[in-house]
Design a protein that fits this description.
Radius of gyration: 21 Å
Largest sheet: none
Protein name: Lipoprotein
Helix content: 55-70%
Order of helices and strands: HH
Number of strands: 0
Length: 61
Amino acid sequence: MNKFFTTLITIGVGTALTACASTDLPKRTVLPLDHGPRAQATPWLNQQRLLYLEQQTKPGA
C-alpha cells in the first residue's frame, strides 16, 4: 500500500511539473562557471564568448 501511494504521488508530481513547464522561455546564453586557482572560464573569456555569440546571432551575419 505504501508503494502504491509513493507511485501515485510520483506520477502526480511528474504530471504537474510537465504541465507547468513552458516552452516559450527566452533563450539565454549559459556560460560555464569555473572557480578556483586555475579557472579556465575567466570574466574576460566570458565577455569574448558573449560578443562572439551576439555577432553570430545578428540577422545578416
